[in-house]
Write a structure and sequence with these properties.
This protein has 3 helices and 9 strands. It is of the alpha/beta class. It has a 6-stranded mixed sheet, with helices on both faces. The chain has a 3-stranded antiparallel sheet with strand order 1-9-8. The longest helix has 19 residues. The protein is globular. The structure holds guanosine-5'-monophosphate (5GP). The site of guanosine-5'-monophosphate has 21 residues, from strand 5, helix 3 and strand 8.
């Protein structure tokens, strides 16, 4: 597949994204009620979502970044999760909030949740994804929080890439 910016159709514009992110942040503010949270942002795709979301969180927040990859330059997942860099500080006893761009097959989410549970005795563990492609799920896993459910289309923009490009768009789009 070849994706050109002029062929992209807008799925969620900037205003819709930002409105929903504030709603999600309010839900998280209610959940944590002022308790400290360590946000784990999954690079690279979740970076835009994570930085916008944390701006509206009102509890003490620390942010950590880990880097995973599963797509390469294709539009279908490889089915394997590569932990490119998963170094984290001691998260024992912490409220941990994983922030992802999209849950597709669910393999990445499962990998991350298993990794956290195997390596740390956290106080709480929640998974928040901007997008949820429920129809593509291969493992029985659901994000605790998500921004929008989408059907089975390959989307780019606002952190999500095709072959490394389009992450800088303010909107999420797809090829018509
Ligand atoms: P999963 O492990 O759930 O199959 O896939 C998760 C990862 O695949 C996401 O973090 C994201 O990097 C990538 N991914 C899944 N669907 C899409 C999509 O529609 N567009 C883009 N750009 N990446 C996707």
């Amino acid at each position: 597949m070849d994706i050109k910016i002029e062929n992209l159709k807008v799925l969620f514009d900037e205003n819709r994204l930002q409105t929903r992110i504030i709603e999600l942040a309010n839900e998280l503010n209610n959940l944590y009620k002022g308790e400290e949270v360590t946000v784990v942002c999954v690079l690279k795709g979740a970076v835009m979502f994570a930085v916008d979301l944390i701006k509206s969180l009102n509890m003490p927040v620390k942010i950590e970044f880990i880097r995973l990859s599963s797509y390469g330059s294709s539009v279908t997942t490889s089915g394997k999760v590569n932990a490119v860099d998963i170094r984290l500080p001691d998260l024992n006893g912490k409220n941990v909030l994983i922030i992802e761009d999209i849950v597709d097959t669910g393999l990445t989410a499962k990998f991350l949740l298993d990794f956290m549970n195997c390596n740390f005795n956290v106080k709480s563990l929640k998974f928040c994804s901007l997008l949820d492609k429920k129809v593509s799920r291969k493992v029985d896993i659901q994000p605790d929080y998500y921004g929008f459910e989408i059907d089975d289309k390959f989307v780019v923009g606002y952190g999500l890439d095709y072959d490394g490009y389009f992450r800088n768009l303010r909107y999420i789009g797809y090829k018509e």
